[in-house]
Amino acid sequence: MTLAWWGAVLGAVAGTGLALVLSRLRVIHRPQLAVRVLPYVRDLPQVGRTPALRVASSSPTSAAAGVFGPVLRSAADTVERVLGGATSVRRRLERADLDRTVHEFRVEQVLWGLVAFAAAAAYSLVKALDDPGSALSSLVVCVIAFVAGVLARDTHLSNQVKTRERRILAEFPTVAELLALAVAAGESPVGALDRVVRRSGGALSSDLARVLAVVRTGEPVGAAFDRMAAATGLPLVARFAQGIAVAVERGTPLAEVLHAQAADVREAGRRELIEIAARKEVLMMVPVVFLVLPITVLFAFWPGVVGLHLTTP
């Protein structure tokens, strides 16, 4: 093939690549329907945390999801059939405020398991270079690593729930006092809720924002707070929501109820702090008893033992 033919082939390849790049850039910069509609409906999804319009992704991860998505989904269905507990997972996802379905969470579990499987396989491959006869044990280790990765994602979800509930308990007294001040100043329950949600931010504020969005759709305030009490996993927050619902339905003074709820949470936090301090005090005695005390006894008696050896004929 002559030099002119090589130039023609390279020019054709470069032209085709440039045409593909330009066509892709044209598709990427084309305004999508979600981009045009989302600014006009942005307030409702943000307050209610309902599933918002999502812009279609044009990144390479979307192509990878299209290629490996069916395999991951079938693996997630298998994990769901083996483990079960979809109701518990759904409740924990709601308590952790994660915008995921149970199936998406199962896919994440499969991905965590695959990462652990890949790490165990790499270790087994390095180990097989020295001991080629350990193929069966390496396979068992890889399977155990996959199961451990799947269970680790479930444990991480439980930790996310606990972390968010700790943040809620830390924010609760302040939010309850703000609601009480707004109601005592003459605000209605919905107006006070709207003012506190707009002025604060955090885990409890997001839950109250969800309640506010439900109330704005026409649901009674008492029913919305009853639903919040049923969805939360914290007894203190459940009593708070039930107290507001009862106060709104029966006309009892709401400010006093909120002040009492805030005082109860502060007292519960004080008791929990005392219990944690008592447990830490016992743990602090472990190094003292098993490390410091034996060394002190050794320093006290060792000179006498040496002196006895020196004076004994």
Automatic annotation (TrEMBL):
Keywords for the protein's UniProt record, in alphabetical order: Cell membrane, Membrane, Transmembrane, Transmembrane helix
Superkingdom, natural source: Bacteria
Record's bilayer topology term: Multi-pass membrane protein
Pfam families tied to this protein: T2SSF
Membrane-traversing stretches: 6-23, 110-129, 135-152, 282-302
Signal sequence, start to end: none
GO cellular component, one term: plasma membrane
KW Cell membrane (keyword) present: yes
All copies of domain Type II secretion system protein GspF, residue ranges: 177-299
InterPro entries attached to this UniProt entry: T2SS_GspF_dom
Location of this chain's protein in the cell: Cell membrane
Protein name per its UniProtKB record: Type II secretion system F family protein
Organism: Nocardioides luti
